[in-house]
């Protein structure tokens, strides 16, 4: 396959109308969403009064309704009688019935349980806690909101584009007459992220204003829409293979799949794609694919950059648990920084829904005999241990069925430790692992498959695990420090003084620690000679990074039969993160990050755990599961890990990039960076030039070449930025994917925002070729 050159972006004179199957109607009314006449939709469009709850004393009635765009909720204040935009449906993460949020549990009484519900938002936005006038009405709100959320998620990419363009058209239509004047058209182009000079805009307007009446309406808006959404690069590719009376036959499509997409496809696969994605019934009857159907295919899983077979569980899940990288969170309870930010059970829900499988609980004595969770010696707020365990149970297995590790940082007295054990036992029940699997002392970890739906406690233990199968050893004083403090004690003696006194360990809590017993690290040889497989150490990032750089192969061998947990330095009071890649390269399984902080490192972490069904478990390469492994990511000597590949990558174009700066005159100057994350020899980045004043359909046709020596550990990150010649570029969107999960050929790259949520309609169009070097 060759890399075609598509030439410069279109000029107005080279626009031509393309027949789209999903035209917006003649007026600026909502494109079809499949919910016309739906009673739940009508309920939201009519709206109703709800009690907004902020505190026990602040509860005010607000009138909420869904706007005609079916995407935006507005509310009316009883005081001002003015409508204000409240939120977009696409910003909702979940709707939860009952008093599930901390705010509702704290500020309402149990008898109103059935009348309450919460709207949980993506990112850091606070929950919206609401109360309806009756249980039936609350159920109706929850059902209706969940239905419209589901409907929006299930729209195909073309429908999402139409809805987005429609909303921009509505905003531009200032006088709501379902027509576009020249000034309104200019405003619309600004909204969709295109900067054009007056001459260009006037030429485009005149081309569409066939009635010569000074505004666009009906068919003219339809014509304008087709010009706007026309993609020249798709013309070129489709034209190359549409050899059957101007259309693609199944045979033409098969040729494209084999030659360009490098797939081992059959004619049956081509027929399946036509039946699945062709929009024109007549073409489908003749087993032909139109350009619209071809574009639809490119936006669907089969056409995306991520191999669709890797989206589901595709790895062997029967290996010992320590043979996997495990998605892990640090200080999971925090919503923001480490000094004065809020603690919340919602933070656990968000991390678990993102696929996190190891959460941290920083436990301290609380009032009324109830242990609490917060960041000790700081002003962070406190949450009850029992509420946290309830939240963990509720959300642990919504995204992944595979085991969750509860990493305890235990600062509690023996009495409150017993309360902790009681809460975990009563709330988690049989899902809590309290004894080894099998009837004899194990010699290795069980597999994630064997531990499905189970909770494992990580913490101190008074005895060896062998005591479960023989005479119990005498339980003694376990020492003074929690694990993270113990790891730091050589460097930070003052941490000892903070404890004030030695802590003893309650037997009830100790007995719950089975496969994850926390111990101090005294060197690789000591661990090999004296520690059981179930005895694991935690490492501060600085110490772990040093070991990964200076003793990488020893670290890898250590992690073949032990677990290692890494955590951020205590100096990261802003909840910033560190680069997890060098630790994965050293075989470390539990590389804990601050999930509450959006950053490049969290993007890479999300990319690492994107595949295998988002289980939170990724099988390490075979050479990292072998006790005799000679692999060293630093020196990179010859071995089975060396599979030198050449990645040829063409960044062709982008579509519908969101505005970074919401000012009317601000337009994105888009550029694309491509980063390779992996062993040091593979780490690289390259970027395109920026395209000025076009975030709607910039085109680059820029070719890159990367050498990748250890593909099983490599990740590819696509980043779109808004160029700024004075300050740092602004982040627009990104997508990170494992190198071994890339699909070759012409591929669409979906984009995610800072929080890791999809940007509707936005994406990159690329060409990928991977060759043996």
TrEMBL record:
<feature type="binding site">
    <location>
        <position position="538"/>
    </location>
    <ligand>
        <name>substrate</name>
    </ligand>
</feature>
<dbReference type="InterPro" id="IPR011993">
    <property type="entry name" value="PH-like_dom_sf"/>
</dbReference>
<feature type="domain" description="PI-PLC Y-box">
    <location>
        <begin position="509"/>
        <end position="625"/>
    </location>
</feature>
<keyword id="KW-0325">Glycoprotein</keyword>
<dbReference type="InterPro" id="IPR015359">
    <property type="entry name" value="PLC_EF-hand-like"/>
</dbReference>
<dbReference type="GO" id="GO:0005737">
    <property type="term" value="C:cytoplasm"/>
</dbReference>
<dbReference type="InterPro" id="IPR002048">
    <property type="entry name" value="EF_hand_dom"/>
</dbReference>
<dbReference type="InterPro" id="IPR046975">
    <property type="entry name" value="PLC-delta1_EF"/>
</dbReference>
<dbReference type="Pfam" id="PF00168">
    <property type="entry name" value="C2"/>
</dbReference>
<dbReference type="InterPro" id="IPR011992">
    <property type="entry name" value="EF-hand-dom_pair"/>
</dbReference>
<feature type="binding site">
    <location>
        <position position="409"/>
    </location>
    <ligand>
        <name>Ca(2+) 3</name>
    </ligand>
</feature>
<feature type="domain" description="PH">
    <location>
        <begin position="43"/>
        <end position="150"/>
    </location>
</feature>
<feature type="binding site">
    <location>
        <position position="565"/>
    </location>
    <ligand>
        <name>substrate</name>
    </ligand>
</feature>
<feature type="binding site">
    <location>
        <begin position="52"/>
        <end position="79"/>
    </location>
    <ligand>
        <name>substrate</name>
    </ligand>
</feature>
<dbReference type="Pfam" id="PF00387">
    <property type="entry name" value="PI-PLC-Y"/>
</dbReference>
<feature type="binding site">
    <location>
        <position position="458"/>
    </location>
    <ligand>
        <name>substrate</name>
    </ligand>
</feature>
<feature type="binding site">
    <location>
        <position position="724"/>
    </location>
    <ligand>
        <name>Ca(2+) 5</name>
    </ligand>
</feature>
<feature type="active site">
    <location>
        <position position="375"/>
    </location>
</feature>
<dbReference type="InterPro" id="IPR018247">
    <property type="entry name" value="EF_Hand_1_Ca_BS"/>
</dbReference>
<feature type="binding site">
    <location>
        <position position="362"/>
    </location>
    <ligand>
        <name>Ca(2+) 3</name>
    </ligand>
</feature>
<dbReference type="Pfam" id="PF00169">
    <property type="entry name" value="PH"/>
</dbReference>
<keyword id="KW-0443">Lipid metabolism</keyword>
<protein>
    <recommendedName>
        <fullName>Phosphoinositide phospholipase C</fullName>
        <ecNumber>3.1.4.11</ecNumber>
    </recommendedName>
</protein>
<dbReference type="Pfam" id="PF00388">
    <property type="entry name" value="PI-PLC-X"/>
</dbReference>
<keyword id="KW-0677">Repeat</keyword>
<dbReference type="Pfam" id="PF09279">
    <property type="entry name" value="EF-hand_like"/>
</dbReference>
<dbReference type="InterPro" id="IPR017946">
    <property type="entry name" value="PLC-like_Pdiesterase_TIM-brl"/>
</dbReference>
<dbReference type="GO" id="GO:0005509">
    <property type="term" value="F:calcium ion binding"/>
</dbReference>
<feature type="binding site">
    <location>
        <position position="360"/>
    </location>
    <ligand>
        <name>Ca(2+) 3</name>
    </ligand>
</feature>
<feature type="compositionally biased region" description="Acidic residues">
    <location>
        <begin position="474"/>
        <end position="494"/>
    </location>
</feature>
<keyword id="KW-0442">Lipid degradation</keyword>
<dbReference type="GO" id="GO:0005886">
    <property type="term" value="C:plasma membrane"/>
</dbReference>
<dbReference type="GO" id="GO:0035556">
    <property type="term" value="P:intracellular signal transduction"/>
</dbReference>
<keyword id="KW-0963">Cytoplasm</keyword>
<dbReference type="InterPro" id="IPR001849">
    <property type="entry name" value="PH_domain"/>
</dbReference>
<dbReference type="InterPro" id="IPR000008">
    <property type="entry name" value="C2_dom"/>
</dbReference>
<keyword id="KW-0472">Membrane</keyword>
<dbReference type="GO" id="GO:0016042">
    <property type="term" value="P:lipid catabolic process"/>
</dbReference>
<feature type="domain" description="EF-hand">
    <location>
        <begin position="160"/>
        <end position="195"/>
    </location>
</feature>
<feature type="binding site">
    <location>
        <position position="460"/>
    </location>
    <ligand>
        <name>substrate</name>
    </ligand>
</feature>
<keyword id="KW-0378">Hydrolase</keyword>
<feature type="binding site">
    <location>
        <position position="722"/>
    </location>
    <ligand>
        <name>Ca(2+) 5</name>
    </ligand>
</feature>
């Amino acid at each position: 396959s060759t890399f075609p050159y598509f030439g410069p972006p279109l000029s107005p004179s080279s626009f031509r109308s393309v027949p789209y199957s999903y035209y917006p109607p003649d007026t600026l009314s909502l494109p079809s969403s499949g919910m016309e006449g739906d009673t739940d939709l009508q309920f939201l469009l009519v709206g109703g009064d709800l009690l907004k709850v902020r505190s026990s004393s602040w509860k005010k009635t607000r009138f909420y309704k869904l706007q005609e765009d079916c995407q935006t909720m507005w509310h009316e204040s009883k005081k001002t009688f003015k409508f204000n935009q409240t939120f977009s449906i696409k910003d909702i993460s979940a709707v939860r019935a009952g008093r599930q949020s901390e705010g509702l549990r704290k500020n309402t009484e149990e008898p109103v349980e059935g009348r309450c519900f919460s709207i949980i938002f993506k990112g850091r936005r606070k929950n919206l806690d609401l109360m309806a006038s009756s249980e039936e009405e609350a159920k109706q709100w929850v059902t209706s909101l969940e239905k419209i959320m589901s409907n929006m998620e299930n729209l195909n990419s073309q429908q999402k584009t139409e809805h987005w363009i429609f909303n921009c058209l509505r905003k531009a239509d200032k006088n709501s007459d379902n027509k576009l004047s020249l000034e309104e058209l200019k405003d619309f182009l600004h909204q969709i992220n295109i900067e054009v000079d007056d001459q260009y805009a006037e030429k485009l307007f005149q081309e569409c204003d066939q009635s010569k009446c000074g505004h666009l309406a009906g068919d003219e808006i339809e014509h304008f829409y087709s010009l706007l959404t026309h993609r020249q690069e798709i013309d070129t590719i489709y034209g190359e293979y549409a050899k059957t009376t101007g259309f693609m036959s199944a045979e033409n499509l098969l040729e494209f799949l084999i030659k360009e997409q490098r797939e081992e496809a059959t004619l049956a696969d081509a027929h399946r794609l036509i039946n699945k994605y062709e929009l024109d019934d007549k073409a489908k009857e003749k087993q032909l694919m139109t350009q619209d159907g071809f574009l639809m295919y490119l936006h669907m899983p089969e056409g995306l950059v991520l191999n669709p077979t890797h989206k589901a569980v595709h790895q062997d899940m029967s290996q010992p648990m320590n043979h996997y990288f495990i998605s892990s969170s640090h200080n999971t309870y925090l919503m923001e920084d480490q000094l004065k930010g809020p603690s919340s059970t919602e933070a656990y829900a968000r991390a678990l829904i993102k696929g996190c499988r190891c959460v941290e609980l920083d436990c301290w004595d609380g009032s009324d005999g109830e242990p609490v969770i917060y960041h000790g010696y700081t002003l962070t707020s406190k949450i009850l241990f029992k509420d946290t365990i309830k939240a963990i149970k509720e959300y642990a297995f919504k995204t992944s069925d595979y085991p969750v590790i509860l990493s305890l940082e235990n600062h509690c007295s023996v009495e409150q430790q017993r309360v902790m054990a009681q809460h975990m036992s009563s709330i988690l029940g049989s899902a809590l692992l309290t004894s080894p699997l099998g009837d004899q002392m194990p010699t290795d970890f069980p597999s994630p498959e064997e531990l499905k739906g189970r909770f494992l406690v990580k913490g101190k233990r008074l005895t060896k695990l062998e005591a479960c199968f023989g005479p119990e050893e005498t339980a003694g004083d376990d020492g003074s420090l929690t694990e993270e403090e113990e790891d730091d004690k050589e460097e930070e003696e003052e941490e000892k003084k903070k404890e004030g006194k030695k802590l003893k360990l309650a037997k009830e809590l100790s007995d719950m620690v089975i496969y994850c017993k926390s111990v101090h690290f005294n060197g690789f040889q000591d661990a090999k000679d004296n520690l059981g497989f179930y005895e694991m150490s935690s490492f501060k990032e600085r110490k772990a990074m040093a070991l990964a750089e200076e003793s990488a192969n020893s670290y890898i061998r250590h992690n073949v039969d032990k677990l290692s947990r890494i955590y951020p330095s205590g100096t990261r009071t802003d909840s910033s993160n560190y680069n997890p890649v060098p630790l994965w390269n050293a075989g470390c399984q539990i590389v804990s990050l601050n999930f509450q902080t959006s950053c490049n490192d969290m993007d890479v972490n999300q990319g690492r755990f994107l595949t295998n069904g988002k289980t939170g478990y990724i099988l390490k390469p075979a050479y990292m599961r072998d006790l005799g492994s000679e692999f060293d990511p630093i020196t990179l000597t010859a071995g089975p890990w060396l599979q030198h590949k050449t990645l040829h990558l063409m960044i062709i174009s982008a579509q519908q990039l969101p505005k970074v700066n919401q000012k009317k005159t601000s337009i994105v100057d888009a550029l694309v960076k491509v980063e390779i994350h992996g062993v040091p020899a593979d780490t690289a980045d390259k970027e395109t030039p920026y395209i000025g004043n076009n975030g709607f359909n910039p085109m680059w046709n820029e070719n890159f070449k990367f050498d990748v020596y250890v593909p099983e550990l490599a990740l590819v990150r696509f980043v779109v930025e808004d160029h700024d010649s004075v300050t740092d570029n602004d982040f627009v969107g990104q997508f990170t994917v494992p190198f071994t999960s890339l699909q070759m050929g012409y591929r669409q790259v979906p984009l995610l925002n800072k929080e890791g949520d999809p940007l509707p309609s936005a994406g990159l169009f690329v060409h990928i070729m991977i060759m043996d070097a």
